[in-house]
Amino acid sequence: QVQLQESGPGLVKPSQTLSLTCTVSGGSITDFGYYWSWIRQPPGKGLEWIGYITRLGASLIHPSLKSRTSISRDTSKNQFTLHLTSVTPEDTGVYYCARGNKPTNRADEYAYRGQGTQVTVSS
User: Is the pLDDT score of 51 beyond 90?
Assistant: First the structure.
């Protein structure tokens, strides 16, 4: 069974770049038919889809975040990474990496998620 594990800094200063890495085990990020996403949950709010990367390395980002977000991957390490620039306190929340079997922007349609990692943006 696939497992996903997020890693990265828990505290980031405003205007800095947040980079989070998802390490996948029990499956490959190049497996056919899967979409590897980042999702977040701000405090007191619902899940928000950030974007995904495909098995071929193409990505789709939520329009509201597109100007400062990218997703990259390292197939040799079976990892994919979120890069979010110019962070503000509004980027605070729990960040999850996830796997879905269709190209959806609905966060609740990703069946497999990591445990999540808390990110706080504060000076």
Answer: yes
